Amino acid sequence: MAHHELSPALTETQARALRVNDTVTLNGTLFGIRDATQIHMFDRGRKTRFDLSGHAVIHTAPNVKKVEKSAAFPAGYQPSCIGTTTSDRMERFTRPLLAEYGVRLVIGKGGLRDDSMKAFGEMGGAYLAIVGGAAALETTWVEAIEDVDLDDLHPESLWKFRVRGFGPLVVAMDSHGGSLYSMVNQAAREQRAAALRALGVR
Amino acid sequence: MRVDLQQVEEAAKELYIRALKLLPPDIKQGFDRLVADESNAGAQRVLGTMLKNITVAEDTQTLLCQDTGIPIYNVRIGRGVEVDGFGLQEAIRRGCARSTREYSFRSSIVHPTTRVNDQTSTGRGVPIIHVEFADRENILEIEMIPKGSGSENNSWLKMAIPAEGIDAIKTFVIDCVLDAGGKTCPPTIVGVGVGGTSDLCVHLAKQAATRALGSRCEDPEGAKLEEALTRAVNMLGVGPQGLGGDSTAFAVHVETAATHITMNPVAVNMQCHSARRARVTFRPGGMEYGF
Q1: Residue B252's domain spans which residues?
Q2: Gap between the Cα atoms of B62 and A81, Å rounded
Q3: Is B37 among the domain residues?
Q4: Quick one: B162 and B253 in the same domain?
Q5: For residue A108, what is the nearest residue in chain B, using CA coordinates?
Q6: Domains, chain A, with CATH or none
Q7: Is residue A85 less than 8 Å (CB to CB) from chain B?
Q8: Binning pLDDT at 50, 70 and 90, where does residue A121 land?
Q9: pTM, two decimal places
Q10: Are residues B216 and B258 in the same domain?
Q11: Of A61, A98, B35, B154, which has fewest CB within 10 angstroms of its CB?
């Protein structure tokens, strides 16, 4: 259970060094991405001007306040509450994120499914679990919104955050076939019969 | 008591932001109970992060969770209250939209097919407003619930049949919790609706999921189910955020209604650990905010 301090962009080797139950703290650039962002990128052929290669994306659509552009608010947005949404809905976008954009890390809550697992294994990536619903705390890890693209999809724009001490996050799916979610789910299903017995179900 | 609609509009506005920032005391106590009983070290760390978040939100006046939810307003009107019902609905709707604009938080509401977001937290049929009547003198209560989508996306209805009996209800709840895994942001309040029609059953599940911790089903049969199901669900080991542990649910809440001789419906709706709600009470002496 190693701890990794990472500043993307990352190499494939760095991504493959992550193992389930390791912890990660991120510094530097982090991209925010959401359902509509990816529907437009992968189903409707829209392109982003951002280079996501080697980077981490987080499943989010933040609460922001529109302000005058300045050194502190380079995109004209002040972060007011930045949290994380359930990843499962965005399962089918993991593979194209890695294959077409070279993304290395996906941050979210609740986990992803088998094809994401395979994509992490084939191309070298990992899923990092954040504590969902802890957005007030998460916001303190975000220094600034540096830039924004596809902002007609607001709040599901493609956000470029600058983060500091973002974590610790738990490596919940790695490139070696390890998944905390599969382990917990399998163990929970093994408890099903005992739970039903306790309820007197015949 | 005559109700001033301008006050209702202001209250509807304030309730939304209060709900987003202040976690009710019963939920905080629920966390304390889970922390005391949790045996898994990783789960303890996750619960610790959630508690830290509550403190940070209070200290920095930040929203607890980024998800501003689907706004639900539950109105209870007592006896002797004079209010223009249509005007009340419109006042709540205006207050809800003003809250989003004036406090500049995220509008999470879109048209269901065009997906267009008016950036007002309102739309066709939203905010959701439920009105019921109470056998109490001169009181009007409005409860606001920003229902998060992570938990709402995990909602189930099964039109079981009488021959499947109460076992179908119990099995269904266990299987829903297993299916939900970490997607509902556990620890959750698992709301179970038993009986009624299909729509009433789902509504009961939502009422159960959003009820204060420590409250019990008024139907003794429902209360018995609550106790047994709470224990059983927490045997599964799903844990906080689905990463393993004892703390899968704060509680299972059940609401019941009579049903048809041929029917045995059961519905499950969950509330995430950011189990937010706020309340305002109007009395002849004035209005008061609470949970």
Answers
A1: 149-271
A2: 6
A3: no
A4: yes
A5: B183
A6: 3-198 (3.20.130.10)
A7: yes
A8: very high
A9: 0.95
A10: yes
A11: B35
